[in-house]
Amino acid sequence: MKKIVWIMLLFALAVGVHAAGGDEKNAETAKKNQWTPENVVYQEDAGQFRISPDGKFALWVKGTADKDKDLRVGSLYLSNLADGKSVQLTRGPDEISNPRWSPSGEMIAYLSSHALLKPKPDTGSTQIWLLNSAGGEPWPVTESERGIQQFEWLNDDTILFSAEEDPSLYERQTKERKDDSNVVDDTAHTAPVRLFKLSVKDKKTTRLTDNDDWILDFAVSRDKSKAVAVARRELSYAWDQKIPPATYIVNLATGERAQIFTNERIYPDAIEWARDNSGFYVVAPFSSDPRFLVATVDKVYFYDLAAAKSVEVNLDWDRGFARSLQATNDGFIALLADGVYTKAARFTRHGATWSRKSISSDDDRHYFSFELGDDAKTLIYEYSTASVPTQFFRARLDGTKISAPLQITDLNPGFKNKTIAKTEVLHWKGANEDDVEGLLYYPDNYETGKTYPLIVATHGGPAGADHDQWTERWAYAPNLMTQRGAFVLKTNYHGSTGYGLKWVESICCGKYYEQEIPDIERGVDNLISKGLVDPDRIGAQGWSNGSILSIQLTVTDSDRYKAASAGAGDVEWFSDWANVDFGESFDNYYFGKSPLEDPQLYLEKSPLFKLDRVKTPTLIFFGTIDRQVPTEEGWTHYRALYSIGKAPVKLILFPGEAHGPRKLTHQLRKLNEEDAWFDRYLFKTSSADNEALKKGSPLDVALKRRDVQRSGALYGATFRPPAAAENPAPDVLIPETVKRGAIEIGRFEVTRTQYSAFDKDYKFAAGTENYPANGITLEQAQSYCKWLSELTSEMYRLPKESEAADLYKPRSGENTLDYWAAYSPNPDDAQKLEEKIKELPGDAPLLREVGTFTAEGDEGEDLVFDFGGNVAEWVVAADGTGKAEGGSADRPSDNKAENRPADAAYTGFRVVHIAPPAPEPTPAPPAQ
Description:
By secondary structure, this protein is α+β, with helices and mostly antiparallel strands. The chain is built from 19 helices and 47 strands.
């Protein structure tokens, strides 16, 4: 009976300890799983899928972050569509794009910026590379002086590509003079972009066309006899839209071209040939404005080769086309615009008309791209929601049914451990009492009945939109805000795309600002009225047009917005008209006139002259070569707020960046600065950074050590073993362990206090309780691990040499002889210093409290201490023998030296904890 009672007591105590320890571990796990700016900036993406001619494989490009290059790079992947397994075909810090199968499927071609082995002088950066689909090394087949812009296979030995013409004598002589002057809109000296043929076998290039304009895009017919080419005819077209692009049908045998759409306002953005070669579909923007195509919906047209005329495809959908027109044997499939969603549809051709049917699946609103195979049945689709990260799936298309999905990508597997905000699609009454749609991201700590801060995150454009789609990026990263306990509201205001022509055109002709601001403000009012949002804790955020509207919000209602982040936004419209690449078309369309015609209108529209109302602390970002919103707008915004002096303001410039930062370091800087700004002025959780505090310094570590205290005790968790009531057992301090690679290892070396709980004969001086246990033999260290395992009913052991090798590499800032000598001693000096050390009292006088010196750990990782110093540590070699690894206080940190054992007095250990395996999470089923 007594034995049963003792077992029950032991179980109760163990449950209590595990419950307390579980809470601590849960908190630590939650901290590990928090979002960081690095998670956002370094995330993987995928695109440019191409299905093989036999339908068995898919080529695609994975985008990843190259920290050394400080840019995103692409790598070519091949996926087996039967089992979803993928292999990486290319590696390295290169730009990879435009993968294409040869007609037979035996070869793969792609564009790459990879350096040529023996390049000719002045060779362009982007060339065509080939790769045998059966494997092997890739090789280049072009050495174009200008670089390749686009290409397609014509047959297994011939490739059609577009590129700028070779430099003229004028260009060569200008370059020889090292004259980098830039003549704006220099039509006479801007090299035309033409079509060329490449013979793969002999690498011979032949010019196909002699056009004097600039080919932007082309699409080859399925019988390889023709191509449709779209060419720019005016260098300043984006600015004034006076001379639109021209569309040609090119004979690929002779190079002759015939212009089409001459009397029609059809300027193709996308081209897709019919499978029977009877003609081709084009996607083109449409606007009711007679001059400008600024706020548009996309329409679909079909050009019939035999009739030599075009006909508009009646989509039977007033919100317009969205993306991914793919020809079928009887028509095409497409994704139609539908607010925050897309609408998948199949169109069947009946002569000069088409009928539409919806494509059905378990979730047909969250497809964001299609790629259809040659069999018109094998389909690859992109799936995500605002709360489900993007993945790609292979499926089967039968009529209007998508079935048998198989996931073929595994992007960002670490996101599975992240807390992702719950999202909801909202509707409210905005300007003119019109229905406005938006997305709401919930705080991670949301509880019904409480109010929370709100970030109003406004999209750019204005002819853009926020979708119920995974869009966590450097410009907008909602999960960084929701984990801080805030709602995030995205609004598809008047002027957004996806809601039809009337909606996207509703802010033209002088109504810019007049409906978007009420739409956003009423969305905020709606959340306040529902008791969700604290009206005293609201911030605004946006980039480009989202920044423009955020700035206007701080002008309109500065008392409401307690902090703002504005990236690349206008405050003054006079200079915008001339200094932006599309200045006249944008400003004339949205304001109705140019500043030359109505300067008073531009004055009234410019927030600059109302910035004296602003009290909102404002953070401003700009690239220094921005041609979409001039960098000078950022300076003007900054100088005005600084001069007025009512609001804290900070301007951050990204050198060499255009409208959005491409460098990873700049993207990280943007997110980190933004987080700190909102933390300080909206969430009130931090003061300004102390720029004198160096990250990783002893002071920084000492401050961070506050975050690794557990149960009121440092370096471990308290455990009370069961004992008889008349003889209570003392508390035992269990070494704290953290995840490092594949193992869970001690954050600190085992301390003297911890070791003495096992070995009652182990003595140490008062005040050194938290020094590392030293003078420990291998057998003593192994015995401690066995005792600790029995005590806690969990497994502890020493590290294995193979699993901990990377942890014990020499590193600076540790407690080694370098620290004590204040320099890096060479072997001779180290030997001389040994004699001086012996003059100090104690057997190991150079030891210090664990965790005193510089911590090791990347951003988002738990800190660990003393792998490179203090005491050398026992590990178990492959043959079972012991080996003391890592630096020690009596040895220099010399990575040139062979491993010289530390003095026995400077030898200790740390433990590895073998955690019970966690159950595998059950993944949510993909869309059917």
